[in-house]
Design a protein that fits this description.
The complex is a heterodimer of chains A (282) and B (490). Chain A is of the alpha/beta class. Chain A is built from 10 helices and 12 strands. The N and C termini of chain A lie far apart (52 Å). Chain B has a 7-stranded mixed β-sheet with strand order 1-10-9-8-6-2-3, with helices on both faces. Chain B has a 4-stranded antiparallel β-sheet with strand order 11-13-15-14. Chain B has a 3-stranded antiparallel β-sheet with strand order 18-17-19. The chains are: A alpha/beta (282), B alpha+beta (490).
């Protein structure tokens, strides 16, 4: 017998992987959560049928969402992570000794519980003493913060489910308010490739641009995500991601990474023409 | 009197119109009747847009589907179930909006020259009915909350005074609640009216939910009113334009049906009718839970918005036992003037900057409709957007028009003024004239000026300010609202 899991990349495009076994499944208040063991991608976390992370390529996503801002703002002490229930982003952040506090706000505690049990490879950092977890509506949490964080990372699912509110202008505005005067906001910015999603990319970018003085996107390649071509948003109050890259300082930290390096950092901000056109950067 | 019971065997779980319609769809009749799109085959683009099922269900009256003008089978049964669900003796399905229900209600009890007692802050549909049938309004000035600038309900002393001065009045019309969620003491008004042989007509355009949760203000039927116009589509979950007229046996239901048929279409839409049928079932079975959730959402949003500072989301604390006898806690009304912005400005910012559409903004307030269809997510978005609007757009409140509701002066009846000889003058030169048409902001659709009312300096200042702030003005012949028709007085 063959068992295949299919992720619907668009209405007309599917991506399938052969499944060894289903490790866990549950229905939370917000969504259905599945963890599968696959032949090619190792463990896979699936929310409401949509692929979130795979054991094989999650390092690309989690390194790029954390080390890029940390190499621009290596003195960040207080970090807020939105979503990130699988723990991968936090696993990368705790590599920095100077970070004093990491607040994580995730709407669905079940995701974190499941990952702590079945996806220890990503969830391993969640028990770090600097990590404080809050399980509540993200917009509500951020709205109540003022001038508190050096870095906010929005590590969320795509905007067609519980994460919809994290792609709105009011959310980016409340993030601006919650950041210090030299704060940085990084967000998961979807893929520009398929027309079904490119409008989301465009809208999210224009919302962030309306709020932050510096706003751009950077890219990486994540094989299991739709089209493989993935974007992150970099928005800040003062820092330019290339001009203010602290290359030497970061390399001296000796942080072990499999994807990220400071040359790639610079390169990731140089975008294909069609993406620049989409984001009206030309 | 006894309520007419639904046909034996039918329960609130049943949906007679819905079932009959579904059966006809499955029967795949060959249609040589209207509508001419014939299941969408004749209009493929519309079919793609609205969906196959929707077009296939868009059928005309036929024997198995009954007839809205003269219901004898499935529509009759569905109306009886609706009457039962709302505690009425009879229910009439309306497909021309609650406007038609309000007008049918008034025209069922008033003829030309008859007096109708009503608060001035009624919807335009009520005054329209007077233009059509020639009844005379006796206005009760609503109470006014000066700091919020909103009209309230009617005080019992004012109602009693109007009744004592006009013992020949045929009926009294009551908003239950107003657009802002404010209720008058309906039980007491019913008692006073019935003691004097007057009918009580209730505009429940914003009160469908009152019938399904005990913590909400009393409904018209429970309070003993004679008729009520209930906008099922507003908070009851049916399709836009569908509505219900409820009556007690104190009025002649067969006559009411004749009045409805004077103006209602003879091609009632089965999409609208089946939506009423299914919405009634849903309300009967799940209504209490739905409105419990709605109240929780609204109460949470009120608390959070009040914590933001500057905004005032008002609630039950307004209740004073008189002109605010009760408050509908599902309504989320927010006073915005203390952040230096007119309600209409906040309304526009929410839509244009944050992609959030709310029900309306007036000079001092905004109103958001909360329903069982809402989720935490949308509620949080609204609160966060209000927080951002305050952070980014807050102004000094100096210079904001300190508006309060203006009680009008009546110079002649609405019908006399509307059909009288009129001339068009520039609006700024109309002071002192008698208005021959309506002027209102839409929504809420409560006239600033109605036919027969004196045009005063205060009212003109209000209109100019509302236009400047971007309110959507309607009612006059002149689409730009730069000229107004005034009555030529000999």
């Amino acid at each position: 017998m063959e068992l295949w899991y299919t992720d619907q990349h668009t209405k007309n495009v599917r991506f399938s992987m052969k499944v060894k076994e289903q490790l866990a499944t549950c229905e939370s208040e917000f969504q259905r959560i599945d963890i599968l063991q696959t032949e090619e991608f190792g463990k896979v976390l699936v929310l409401d049928g949509e692929l979130m992370i795979t054991q094989k390529d999650e390092f690309i996503y989690h390194e790029m969402i954390t080390h890029v801002p940390m190499a621009v703002h290596p003195n960040a002490k207080n970090v807020l992570v939105i979503g990130a229930g699988d723990g991968g982003t936090i696993r990368e952040l705790i590599k920095y000794d100077n970070i004093e506090r990491i607040d994580m706000v995730e709407i669905d505690k079940k995701v974190t519980d499941m990952c702590m049990e079945y996806f220890k490879e990503t969830a391993c950092g969640l028990s770090d003493r600097r990590v404080h977890m809050y399980f509540e509506e993200e917009l509500r949490y951020v709205r109540q913060q003022h001038d508190k964080y050096d870095l906010i990372i929005v590590d969320c699912a795509d905007p067609y489910g519980p994460a919809e509110g994290l792609f709105t202008k009011e959310f980016y505005g409340t993030c601006f308010k919650a950041l210090h005067e030299d704060g940085i906001l990084i967000n998961q910015h979807e893929s520009p490739y398929y027309s079904e999603h490119s409008r989301t990319v465009q809208k999210a970018h224009s919302h962030i641009q309306a709020v932050f003085p510096y706003s751009t996107v950077y890219q990486c390649h994540i094989p299991s995500y739709p089209s493989g071509h993935w974007l992150f948003g970099f928005a800040s109050k003062v820092y330019d991601p290339i001009r203010d890259l602290k290359e030497e300082q970061w390399n001296e930290l000796g942080i072990d990474t499999r994807y990220y390096n400071t040359n790639l950092h610079k390169g990731s901000f140089y975008l294909p023409n069609y993406v620049m056109k989409l984001l009206k950067m030309q | 009197m006894e309520q007419n019971p639904p046909k034996a065997g039918l329960t609130q779980e049943d949906t007679p119109i819905h079932c009959a319609l579904e059966e006809q769809r499955i029967n795949r009749l060959a249609h040589f009747d209207v509508p001419g799109h014939k299941g969408g085959r004749g209009n493929k683009e519309l079919k793609r847009f609205l969906g196959d099922t929707c077009l296939q269900l868009d059928m005309n009256s036929m024997k198995p589907l009954d007839n809205l003008c003269h219901p004898v089978s499935v529509i009759k049964e569905a109306q009886e179930l609706t009457a039962q669900a709302f505690g009425a003796d009879e229910a009439f399905f309306i497909v021309n909006g609650t406007t038609a229900a309000v007008q049918a209600m008034i025209m069922s009890v008033c003829k030309a020259g008859d007096k109708l007692i009503m608060p001035r802050n009624v919807h335009r549909s009520a005054i329209n009915a007077l233009v059509v049938c020639g009844a005379q309004p006796v206005y009760v000035n609503p109470g006014v909350n000066r700091s919020l600038g909103i009209p309230l309900g009617m005080s019992i002393a004012d109602v009693k005074k109007a009744m004592d001065e006009n013992p020949d009045a045929k009926a009294i019309l009551v908003n239950n609640p107003t657009y802002y969620g404010i209720c008058s003491d309906l039980r007491k008004i019913v008692q006073l009216a019935h003691e004097r042989g007057m009918y009580v007509l209730v505009d429940e355009a914003h009160g469908t939910h009152f019938y399904f949760h005990e913590a909400l203000p009393v409904s018209a039927m429970e309070a003993g009113a004679d008729m009520a116009a209930v906008s099922m589509h507003k908070t009851g979950g049916s399709l836009t334009q569908s509505s219900v007229l409820l009556t007690k046996n104190s009025v002649n239901g067969d006559y009411v049906r004749q009045i409805i048929n004077l103006t209602q279409t003879t091609s009632g839409s089965y999409l609208l009718l089946s939506s009423l049928d299914i919405a009634r079932k849903n309300l009967s079975i799940n209504g209490r839970g739905m409105f419990e959730k709605t109240m929780q959402f609204a109460s949470y949003a009120r608390n959070e918005i009040n914590k933001l500072g500057g905004y005032y989301a008002f609630g039950e604390e307004l209740v004073d036992g008189d002109a605010v006898y009760a408050f509908d806690t599902t309504k989320l009304s927010v006073h915005t003037r203390d952040i230096g912005l007119a309600g209409i400005e906040v309304y526009d910012l929410l839509r244009d900057e944050y992609g959030i559409q709310i029900e309306f903004g007036d000079i001092g307030n905004i109103l958001a409709i909360i329903s069982a269809g809402d989720r935490n997510l949308e509620i949080e978005r609204l609160i966060s957007a209000l927080s951002e609007i305050k952070r980014l757009y807050q102004k000094d409140r100096a210079g904001l028009f300190d508006h309060e509701y203006i009680n009008p002066t009546i110079a002649m009846g609405p019908q006399q003024a509307f059909y009288g000889k009129k001339k068009m003058v520039p609006i700024e030169k109309s002071e002192g004239g008698i208005c021959g048409e309506f002027v209102m902001c839409y929504p809420p659709g409560i006239p600033i000026l109605a036919p027969g009312e004196k045009i005063t300096k205060d009212i003109l200042a209000y209109i100019a300010y509302a236009k400047e702030k971007g309110c959507f003005m309607t009612g006059t012949q002149d689409m730009k609202i730069e000229n107004i028709n005034i009555v030529e007085v000999e």
